[in-house]
Records
---
Amino acid sequence: MKYVDEFRDPEKARFLLEEIRVLVPQIQQNRNSSSPIYIMEVCGGHTHAIFRYGVETMLPDGIELIHGPGCPVCVLPMGRVDDCVALAHMPGMIFTTFGDAMRVPGSKESLLQAKANGADVRMVYSPLDSLRIAKENPDRPVVFFALGFETTMPSTALTVLRAKKEGIKNFAMFCNHITIIPTIKAILDSPDLQLDGFLGPGHVSMVIGNSSYVFIAEHYKKPLVIAGFEPLDILHGIWMVLKQIAEGRCQIENQYKRVVPEGGNTVALDAIGRVFELREFFEWRGLGSIDHSGVRIRDEYAEFDAERRFSVPALKIADPKSCQCGEVLKGVIKPWDCKVFGKDCTPETPLGALMVSSEGACAAYYQYGDIEKIHDTRALVEEMA
Amino acid sequence: MSSVVEVAAKNGRPRHRGRVKVPNITLAHGGGGKAMHDLIDDIFVEAFDSEGQLPLEDQARLGLAELAVHGDRLAFTTDSYVVKPIEFPGGNIGKLAICGTVNDLAVGGAIPLYLSCAVIIEEGLPVETLRMIARTMSATAQEAGVKVVTGDTKVVERGACDKLFINTAGIGVIREGVDLGVDKAQPGDVILVNGLLGDHGAAILNARGDMQLSTPIESDCAYLHGLIDTLLFAVPRTRFLRDATRGGLATVLNEIAEASQVGIQIYEDRTPIRSEVKGFCEILGLDPLYLANEGKIVCVVPREDAETALAALRSHPFGIDSAIIGEVNDHRAGRVVMQTVFGGRRIVDMLVGEQLPRIC
């Protein structure tokens, strides 16, 4: 495949790995500590690619990747899933969603189960598909489950704008869009956090640009490198973070220049600004409530806001007690350290959302992970106990 | 409305053969009366027994002596076909229903001989669509050298099924000495496939039109007993064969690893996938290892026979792009690991759920 294979070239990977193998001990020596260098990839797309290509299995000891909160499906609290299910069961309703949200467990049902139990839940690939369904079914309400970071916000915003322009009356959004910056800030403020640097999200940055991250370097003194999603992008990004650490720099750098413009995408940002406004706070699974971390639809477009048009239960449902998703998200523990990982919580019967999406750290480990390493770690832990 | 055509039956006496004159199937065509007989005559007898060779009984009658000529064990299988859409690039549900069941017999080392054909039709299906599919089945069966010898027709109300469901059962005979098994893989064995993977799954997904992508990908739907014959003749010690249908290559490899209690290692750069399918998967976030195939088998053979097996597969029209993709080892039993193009390793597990539409 053109423009793809170039970014999966094992020869170039070997070259970068050699450099990384030199940098890691050098940093450890500078610090006078043999503890690993922790780098968090914020974005679920990175997590998926890291496992898909076995990037983690290629890295030397002394460097550990922490799989951050950037999978929007994974950080969705159970109460919001229940709201989706309630909407889906409303009379006449056609509820439309991206496929990977179908299996996220609610307190009683997932959307997939709701579908099996008679709700008209349909998988779409774009909010515009949902709008088309609304036009084809003018006598039925159609709701789109809008979810994701700044990456998917523009397409939702443009769909709302189009619905308004075309005067579509039976279409609404259940808005669960979240923003990345307050979340990174919440992670950085977390007291039990040991991070040395970040791989910044490529597609979010394509929309919002570079400047929003400056506080991470200036205030928190952590390097961040915006990286693409091909395995070579990721290795290159890791190398750039290590290089900064080795040279004592904390900067926002852009590895993904072929896609991410300095100032972001102004057309997309304009659409987002017209349709959405910040919520005071938004509930995250595992991380709790984070101020200004979610958006809702502005009053001007209230007719397209499912939360205002329909009565959704909006109950706060606590995560299952045994679930340690929050600690995994913050990188405090590895997925396999969680008490229920692979036991009560598997991709077939997920307790936590991290086990659901292919971008979730737990599902990725379960599906693609280095099981030998997990077994060895477990054996070691058991021996020590 | 139906007209009557007289044809000569086997015993020389004229038999009345009905004709369907309405454009769409109605519940009357499943009612057991004249409309149903006309439908069976006009569509199925016409397609499968146009010369009136078979007696119209409730069962096919097969001579034991004729079967015993081919081998010492019967193979018997059944499969239902519910693919959506019923017509797709590279075939239709009828071709699939013949090839799928022929392949299920063939991968056991059997010579496929007889099939049944049971259809469940949703009222409203155009009669011409049904006729076209029955003719495809007849033509495919003829090419494959199998006979459709018995069948059944049901019509259900609108919404109770989706256009047309087909079940075919098949009988074949396993040659003496052939003994393939999913539990027979041994460390050191090699794994082959007979060509490019994922075409069927991608073609079906694309044919549904949800994605609005334009690709030239066609289903690989094909009957493989000829290819399998060639392989078994060249490598009689072949351990195991399975068609990589639902769940794709990844699922079959996991089945082998589990049943044989062995580890399996495959190499991404040796696994043949056409670039259109790679691109299709890339856009939709799918993994081609899990895409369905309808004309691909996974073969396990002893290491010393690897090249012979490869040459045999490649000598057949349905095996031109065959490749050795990996090997069996004695590491973690039950685990399938892939060396990625990038140089890393990843586990290839069974897929948990299926978000994808019906594919076979």
---
Amino acid sequence: MVKISRNIVTTQLQLFLLAASLLFIFKIFFGSSDSVYLRIILDLLIAASIFFLLIALIRFENSRTTAPLSLIMNIGILSAIMFFIITFSDYLMPNIFDNINLKLKNPGLVYDIVSVFYVLVFIGFVSYFLLTLRHFFFLNQGRNIRIYFNTMLVFFILASLSGNFFQAESVSFLSSTFFIVSVLLMVFNSIRISWIAFLSKKEKIYLLLLSFVITTLFIVNINNSSGDNIHSQMLNAFSPSLKQFNVIVMVYGSIYFLILFFTTLFHLPTAEAFDRKAQEVTSLQYFSKLITEVLDFNDLAETVTDIAQKLSGSKATWIIWKNGAKQNSLAARNIGFVESDKVTNQILERISFENLTSTRTFNLKEKISEGSTSNSLSVVSVSPIKTRGETQGILVAAKGSGQIFTQDDLNAMETFSDYASVAIENSRLLEESIEKERLEKELDVAREIQRKILPLQVPRYPNLQVASVFIPAFEVGGDYYDFFKISETKLGFVIADVSGKGISAAFIMAEVKGIFESLSKTIERPKEILIKANEILKEALDNKTFVSAAYGYFDLAEKKLVFSRAGHCPLFLLRGGDSKQIKPSGLGLGLSETDYFEKTLEEYSIDLKENDTIVLYTDGVTEAKNELLEDFGDKLFLEALQSNINLTAEELSNKIIKEITVFSSGHEQYDDITLVIFKWQQ
Amino acid sequence: MAEFSTSVRENGDISIINLKGFLDAHTAPTLENNFTQLINDSKFKIVVNFEDLAYISSAGLGVFMAYIESIRDNKGDIKLTNMSDKVFNIFDLLGFPLLYEIYKNEDEALKKFSGS
């Protein structure tokens, strides 16, 4: 695209140069002739030069975007140069021509060359002025504006030519008529200047000065061009039409810039308000984008205070965020945390989170000097940031003494804090769902660990039926059980429950497994094993985590069960029609020092009889809940065991689990369920 | 999740924490904050009233373990009162009666503090 437009520009420039060269040759051969036809040809050549240069400039102009202000600056510079050329030509040209007349044989030729160049320079000036004014004109939007502009140009040309060709008394009125119509069209085309509305106040002041200077320069230049000086003489001698056209374009320029000057002047009082509104619109657009883009809470808070500061024109902004029972300052902008805390304290003396429902403003009792600046903060506006319908934060904007929050400021802050609330709520919800996903992944890992830790199958012994059932809860509950083949006639077992849930409980389970696996290989007595396990775990666990456990072994040769209980659920012994809950004393592992643990720990021994059923479980069994939040409990558990006592261990465990499942069908399983059943059959 | 709340009262130099609802891994931080606050304020004589507590999980029990050492190091104690049978049973299984003084009602616990 750029390349193509460059090519077009080059073509137009070539045409301009061709026309200019023809002009040059024409002037040298025919000089200043009085023939009407030659004058017409000359004017046509001038018109062609201006036309092609103008087209080239327009094409070039369209290929890039230039700010109106820099174009105006260019005009200013050019009109200043023009002023100097016109002024100096008055002093320099006569000297130069005098020298030429003295030294050269053919002064007419040199004079022609100089005048052609001089004229070309002015063709350049005029084309550029016309181009820029056209550019400004087309900044206005409206119907048929092209027609208005072209009509005006036609009258420019008519006015220029008529002065040259209709000099007779009878038709001289035509020239002035065309001129007057041109001026009317200039005024008409200049009155609607809308583009300055979008400039900032600073730019408007700049524009005001610039347009004043340019108007003055144009008027001075018109005056100089129409007078009886060298410049005027040179142009007139070359072509009166060109001189007239030059003057008309300058008149257009001075009218445009005069109107621009007054329009800017009238816009100036509202410039600040307009600036503010423009800022608000951009900020709100920016912020609605933020709602969908910024997701990190801290980034969001920074952006909120940044925009709030611009929006309200405040010196400093920050957010007071409620964090449990405390409040802290977030994302302080243009103020230190020490100063912002001082102001925060004053604010919280006046208002509370609960009763702040809309934006308010008040003066600070005690002014806070902020940083190195001498101006101290004296007035604040506070807006609520709500999540879930509750005020969770306060957006504070502070201004220095002598400044006030206008109703517009407060309205803007009110709207803005609503936006901020939505954005913050969004980011919080997202954070929550990410956290939830992370937690679920973590729980997958925990369940996997637990699955690998628990025994794959139960051991087989000739006279002892062994059955176990384990049902994990969604949040891994930390249940652990295991069997240890101590010898051909001895079977060790452990059942344990780690306090807490999830991945941390799963890791502790793994540790507990390691401890019991190694201890059971070297130590036989349950009491000693638990004492050792307590010693290790007291060291390893933090002081709020503990493990309940029961460890024991069956001696098949001696027909004996020996076990100790460290804070775990009791053991059930079902013998004949009777049932017995066996609960020897013992503290949970990791709760107390070795001495005290040892002192309070008992060991219990049972001589086994035919069909003795021994049941171990974790609290997930007895604390399984129904929809009324009632526990399954010891009583139902025992009843279920007793009424199915004739089943094998395997069948019995399945039956019990079925009963628990039926009981708790209306309630989500909250804890792991572990059930281990031994049945002694000689 | 189940609801849990606490309230703290002063009785002379003794602080009484009332528990209400379900104390488990999710609600334990509320009670932890109470203990931290009391320890920061150098209030080491603490009675915990379980009258309105419906349920306590192992993680809930852990809260008491977490602070008992520092409180006893400062010549204070945590005494537990007004437990329902169900809650007492959970404490009992783990052997807590061996580690903590558990009383039927607040008065007994308060007397015990002023007596010692």
